[in-house]
Amino acid sequence: MLTVDLSTLDLAPGQRVxxxxxxxxxHVHGLYYAGALDxxxxxxxxxxxxxxxxxxxxxxxxxxxETRSFSLAVADALHLPFADASFDRIVCSEVxxxxxDYEAALAEIRRVLKPGGLLAVSVPxxxxxxxxxKLERRYHETPGGHVRIFRDASLRRDVxxxxxxxxxxxxxxxxxxxxxxxxxxxxxxxxxxxxxRQYHKLLVWDILKRPRLTRALDAILSPLMGKSVVLYFxxxxxx
Length: 239
Description:
Blueprint: E1 16-20, H1 26-32, E2 38-43, H2 46-58, E3 69-74, E4 87-93, H3 102-112, E5 113-124, H4 126-135, H5 138-141, H6 152-160, E6 164-172, H7 177-185, H8 194-209, H9 212-225, E7 228-235
Parallel strand pairs: 1-2, 1-4, 2-3, 4-5
Antiparallel strand pairs: 5-7, 6-7
Helix pairs in contact: 4-7
């Protein structure tokens, strides 16, 4: 389940790509199998990185090993262990809403991205996320939960203030917002609720099978109520 549209990143063989806050690796996996890239995934959670590695082990690599590579590391978004201008592309998906000092993370992203490099950032969309917060405070008060709700125009200004130029915006996961509203509305029963379990089955079916019906519904609903907003930027050349 990719949130970022990888085709917008204009990927080319030999590029080095960072997935910052990769979690269990959905974009790391997507990038690795997208082409002859050197993909690096970092996250604070060692357990999530183990799951990412297991994902690679479960899928056979049909290309020669020398055509592409991946590496995984535990790292802090505020202190990335990489040299200046060491990546051609950076993906930061559903991460900044977890970081109290997200502006320091943006500064690190700028530092390690090459001039002319592309950045994709996704965060929860304001109004679907606002409904979750109103329905259940524990949704965002759990450890590691969301510490803010972004307005995409404000986030765009924050990124552009650091020497980036925005060039595209879209929304993703239109089918997912109702699932999270159900989770929040039935918070104490979300593990046993028939509605939550059935909706989860629908989402898994959609992700694995990608039937035309649900794909069409998602395309229609994403601009209206997509769970995520995705912004794309180019890092301006140094003065």
